[in-house]
Amino acid sequence: MSGWLEGYAALVTGGGSGIGRAVAERYLAEGASVTIVGRTAEQLTRVVAESADPGRMHAVVADTRDSEQLRNAVAETVERFGKLDTLVANAGVWDYQRHLTRLTARELGNTFDEIFSINVKGYFLAAEAAWRELVRTRGSIVMTLSNASFDVNGGGVVYTASKHACLGLMRELAYELAPKVRVNGVACGGMNTDLRGPETLAMQNRSLSASFAKRGAGSPPPPIPLHDSSTDPRDFTAAYVLLASREQSGPITGEAIRVDGGIGVRGFHTSAGGDHL
Ligand code: NAD
Fold it and tell me: Could you give the number of structural domains in the chain?
C-alpha cells in the first residue's frame, strides 16, 4: 500500500457493503481512520469487527435521506478521529434497468422519489453535513458516480437520470467549494456487489450479486472493451485513494475518473477491437 492517506479521517456512506466497504477497507490500509455509515447496525458492526484495524473504524447508523442523522455521523467522526478529511458519498440503489414504458405513472412517481432521494438528495445532504469540517482540513469529497453518469442503458430512466444528476452536483460543488475543498467522482462500471432495487418496485431484496452468480462459464462476456476485467469492487478502489490524497491530486477538482472497462470507447460492431491480438 502507498500510505497516501496516512493520518486522514474519512467518512463513507453506504460503507457496509460493496464498493463503499471496499473503499473503507482500502482507506484503512492506506493509513486513514474511517467512519462507515449505513442503515443496519448489524451489518456495520460485522464490517468493523472483520476489518484489519477495528480501532480505526467507526460505525454510525444513519439513513442518508436524513440530514440530522448525517450531521450526527460527521460529528461522531470528528469526536472520534479529531477531524474530517474526506467524504465519500456513495450509498445508492439501482432500478434494475426498468424502462419508462414498463412503469405505470404511479410507479414512476414513487420510484423517482425513492431513487432520487437516496442517490441524489443523499449526496446533497452528505455534502451539506460535511463541508464545514472539510473547509477546516482543506479536505475533499469523492462521489461514487457510474457509467450511467455518462451513457445510457447502464440503468433504466430513473437511475440514469439520478447518476447524471450526481455528475452535475459534483461539478457545481467543485466550483462552489473551491478553493478550500476539492470535489471529484469515480464513475464505476459493473461490480459484483449487493446493489439493491427500490422498495417502491418491491425490489429491495433483489441483489446484483445474484445476477453475477447466474452468469455461467458459457455466458457471453459483458459488452465492454475490457470485458475480462475484474468485477470485484476492491479492484475499483485505487481512484478513490488518488482523489482523496491532497498530496497526490491537489490540483484535481470537478473531475470524474471512469473505472468501467472502457465503456466510453466501445465501438459499433464489436465491443472490443483487439480480440484477434
Ligand atoms: P451495495 O448495495 O453493496 O452498497 C450500497 C450500500 O448503501 C448498502 O450497504 C446499502 O445498505 C447502503 N444504502 C442504501 N440506501 C441507503 C440509505 N438511504 N442510507 C444509508 N445507506 C444506504 O451496492 P454498491 O454497488 O456498492 O453501490 C454503491 C454505489 O455504487 C451506488 O451509488 C451505486 O449506484 C454505485 N454503482 C454501482 C455499480 C455496480 O455495478 N455495482 C456500478 C456503478 C455505480
Answer: 1
